[in-house]
Amino acid sequence: MLVIWGRSNSINVQKVLWCCEEMSLPYERIDAGGAFGVVSTPQYRKLNPNGMIPTIVDDGFVLWESNAIVRYLAEKHASGTLWPEDRKVRAEADKWMDWQQTTFWAALRPLFMGLIRTPAEKRDPKALEEARLATAQTLTIVDAHLESHTWLAGDSFTMGDIAMGCAIWRWFGLAIERPEMANVARWFDALARRPTYKRIVMPPLV
Ligand SMILES: N[C@@H](CCC(=O)N[C@@H](CS)C(=O)NCC(=O)O)C(=O)O
Predict the structure, then answer these.
(1) What band does 167 get if pLDDT is binned at 50, 70 and 90?
(2) What's the gap in Å between 101 CA and the centre of ligand 1?
(3) Which pLDDT belongs to residue 116?
(4) Which one, of 206, 149, 132, lies nearest residue 183 by Cα?
């Protein structure tokens, strides 16, 4: 059986869990990272020398990097759905996955870490406000794209929505002021209607 290492409240672990649940793929999850530790042990470092989560072991095949894992699993088990068969649609999905990690999460992470993982007395209000504005600005790109697309890669739900969907809950789930973005809100509502998203991604942020 597929083994997934990582605590369930991690954005990057959630991508993998949600992907599996969308495909009804059975897995065993082992807590690691954060308060669970494990990631610094020599045994874990043999699997993932970065000491990060998630890591998967699939029939002896070890893989880390959340988006690479989602691509691997989607190609293996969900060709034609999460993994679009059309090369251009697949490239679009791929693009949003990379954008989520390199651009969107880079903007949002300081806000998320500041508000959720930092005690109130240690927060830097100026840095938080800068991150809030930078994230809102970055999100206008998604909002404009979703004006003419139902899902990120086009007409159907794909692996691109998985990566960005995990990140967008870190925006809508925060107690912050958010500018109105009708298309992002419509897309988020559609995600929130998926039982798998509700179960894996939408528990309160911790
Ligand atoms: N680029 C990596 C980033 C992995 C990453 O940053 N993981 C975080 C959790 S979201 C982590 O391992 N943090 C240390 C810990 O939880 O102990 C990926 O996408 O898998």
Answers:
(1) very high
(2) 11
(3) 97
(4) 149
